[in-house]
Amino acid sequence: MKKINYIILLMLTIVVASCQPTYVKTYSWAYPVAGDWAVKAYVDGAEAGGPYEIRTYNSAFGKDSIFVDDYATTSSNGNFWGFHAKAAVDMTAKTFQTALSTNAVPSYGIGVKIMNGKIIGTDSISFEIQFSDDTNTAGVGYATTYTLAGHREVGYDEYVQK
User: Which candidate in 38, 52, 62, 104 could, as Cys together with 84 as Cys, close a disulfide (CB 3.0–4.6 Å)?
Assistant: First the structure.
């Protein structure tokens, strides 16, 4: 009788163990550049606002570009500026930039320049950004260079079930 109980217990253990789901962690090709970031804005080293939510994610154009996005629908709905720009990415150096990108926010097609974008480690981001509608007293655009810098708000591992 003890042998039968032992065999039944062993079989139940095997059945229960085989029913446990296993998850394999998979990363997007854009990791660690892709992520959700909490950043502050700086002008000439002085804090100019924030924190703002910025997202970087892979594009469907291949493994040479990402989108940099503050998910604002206009420049006045609570995020930094209202921008969605495609940037060239170097995954080896974890850097990104644009020469000039047209803002993809609907009805807000301004020019956006992103310079010196980089991911430091896996949890920090920094880049400079300029906007064509940010004019100086002479009416010339791209007057101010903003530095957006911060940390990863949501880690990539939190997106993947464990």
Answer: 104
Domain map (residue ranges) of the chain: 35-156
What's the pLDDT tens digit per position in 101-150? 666 665 567 888 999 999 998 899 999 999 888 887 777 778 899 999 99
Name the DSSP letter for residue 46.
E
User: What residues does 85 pair with on adjacent strands?
Assistant: 68
Write down the architecture of domain 35-156 according to CATH: Beta Barrel (2.40)
The DSSP 8-state label assigned to residue 36 in this structure reads E
- Say what the alpha-carbon torsion angle 82, 84, 89, 92 is, to the nearest 10 degrees: 60
Q: 3 by DSSP, 3-state: which?
A: helix
Which of the 8 DSSP states describes residue 157? G
Strand partners, 119: 125
pLDDT at residue 155 tops 80: no
For 82, phi then psi, to 5°, come to 95, 65
**Radius of gyration, CA atoms only, the chain:** 23
Residues in the chain: 162
Helix (H, G, I), strand (E, B), or coil: what is residue 57?
strand
- Structural tokens at position 28: 């997007």
Contact 50, 41 (CB under 8 A): yes
User: Both tokens of residue 54?
Assistant: 């910025």
Dist CA 21 CA 127 (whole Å): 40
